[in-house]
Design a protein that fits this description.
By secondary structure, this protein is α+β, with helices and mostly antiparallel strands. The protein has a single domain, classed as Cytochrome p450 (Orthogonal Bundle). 50% of the residues lie in helices and 10% in strands. Helix 1 packs across helix 2 and helix 7 crosses helix 14. The longest helix is centred in the middle third of the chain and has 26 residues.
Length: 460
């Protein structure tokens, strides 16, 4: 089978380029080969990359049974486990998705709103006027506290502190391009003791698993007390009570894998997005001033629900996710039965990758794509095949609503309390962090003043 044209460099060199210069490489390939091209990197099968909305629509709306989407995400298996929603296909994927949906809809969002605001305020209490702080680590701390409390309903105690410490260590281990390669590339997975990358990973994973399984056992025992169940609002309690169409609950192993998926996917992605939003609202003062003016229209006592509906705040967050999406690609699809996409015929085994970054950089969709311009999201509505920061089709991120809410409320809470400025206002480029991209950890801001109103956000 002849795949679309693509770069001819040796696959090992293409891998190094993808690690060191992911955005530049994608843009250079798109400029030379067009909307569809094939990438070949050592350790991975050839990847057919798409950036035209029509092709992405054809992929997202195709019969899911034509693809093995979960198999394409095998790189996550060591961390998330075999039962993670991300790695499942067919009926098992549908079952798990249905069981996971309730915590992310309706009234649940209101409870999370209070949690997000309170957690952000607690973290901000550590900041001192005039003293620089590293933005990404601060946002990672906030997002980790939020997701741990949302998932387990705990924010203190030995188990919480240990989970926080081990998860942070695990994500730091897999964060750098070099160390993540030693963890995620199967041929390099060698346990050479606790100081080797793979050995360290295995031991951290075991420690996290012990804590999660202990929490599951404790909650199952608590489920015998009906009053205790009704008094809890965390995701774990909801998942323990969930039943599929046959009336069956999730097993402990399924629960562990889905909880790890939520903890990992709901942590670094949101932290990176909020860090970018803080960067743009202070690198471009007119954007930050306009956003603060909108927040001030709500008065001193800001209802989180009202904040989440603010149009310019929403536009700022959307533009943040457009210009530098945390995930460069939507979930890959491995062709199961012959299919035609973008006038190409693909045979079973071909890996298809809708490219979020290249789609968001199309000048025919987003004039001046390198310019941060929130107004573009006030001027027109983009289709889910033109704007896709959370992927699409049956593989769209299940935590999308939660992530958007957290992003808005963390940003609004910070801006309503503090005047900030960037320590260095030079342009900042994304860096690779495992399979994601993020702002550099060295980016710093400094608190230059405190807003007069000290009760800028009051949870309801």
């Amino acid at each position: 089978m002849k795949l679309p044209d693509g770069p001819k460099a040796p696959s090992f060199l293409q891998l190094l380029q993808a690690i060191a210069y992911p955005l530049e490489r994608l843009e250079a390939c798109a400029k030379r080969y067009g909307d569809t091209f094939t990438s070949r990197t050592t350790g991975f099968p050839p990847l057919v990359i798409f950036s035209h909305p029509q092709a992405i629509q054809e992929i997202f709306t195709a019969d899911p049974n034509q693809f093995d989407s979960g198999k394409g995400m095998g790189v996550f298996q060591p961390t998330l486990g075999d039962n993670s929603l991300i790695l499942l296909d067919g009926d098992r994927h549908l079952r798990q998705r249905r069981l996971l949906m309730p915590p992310f809809h309706g009234e649940r969002m209101r409870a999370y709103s209070n949690l997000i605001c309170e957690t952000t305020e607690t973290a901000m209490n550590q900041w001192t006027v005039g003293e620089p702080f590293f933005v990404l680590p601060s946002m990672l701390d906030i997002s980790l506290r939020v997701i741990l409390q949302a998932v387990f309903g705990i924010n203190e105690g030995e188990r919480f502190q240990q989970l926080r410490q081990f998860l942070r260590s695990l994500l730091d281990l897999t964060g750098s391009p070099l160390r993540s390669s030693l963890v995620f590339i199967r041929s390099l997975q060698r346990d050479l003791g606790p100081w080797s990358p793979w050995g360290r990973f295995l031991r951290l994973r075991h420690q996290i698993d012990e804590l999660i399984y202990a929490e599951i056992r404790q909650r199952r025992a608590e489920m015998l007390n009906v009053a205790s169940v009704h008094s809890r609002e965390d995701i774990l309690t909801l998942l323990l009570a969930a039943r599929d169409e046959a009336g069956e609950p999730m097993t402990d192993v399924e629960l562990r894998d889905e909880l790890m998926t939520l903890l990992v996917a709901g942590h670094e992605t949101t932290a990176a997005a909020v860090t970018w939003a803080l960067h743009w609202t202070h690198r471009l003062p007119e954007v930050g001033e306009k956003l603060i003016q909108e927040l001030n229209t709500l008065g001193c006592e800001k209802d989180p629900t009202a904040i989440a509906r603010l149009p310019y705040l929403n536009a700022v967050c959307q533009e943040t996710l457009r210009i530098y999406p945390v995930a460069l690609f939507a979930f890959t699809r491995i062709v199961r039965t012959p299919i035609e996409i973008a006038s190409y015929q693909f045979e079973p085994g071909t890996v298809l990758a809708p490219c979020i970054y290249l789609t968001h950089q199309r000048e025919d969709l987003y004039p001046e794509p390198k310019r941060f311009k929130p107004e573009r999201f006030l001027e027109r509505q983009f289709s889910p095949y033109e704007y896709l920061p959370f992927g699409g089709g049956n593989r769209r991120c299940i935590g999308m609503a939660f992530a958007q809410l957290e992003m808005k409320l963390v940003l609004a809470t910070i801006l309503s309390h503090f005047h900030l400025k960037l320590v260095d206002n030079r342009p900042v480029k994304p860096v690779r962090r495992a399979v994601l991209t993020a702002p550099p950890r060295g980016m710093q801001m400094v608190v230059t003043g405190v807003h007069r109103s000290q009760n800028a956000l009051i949870p309801v």
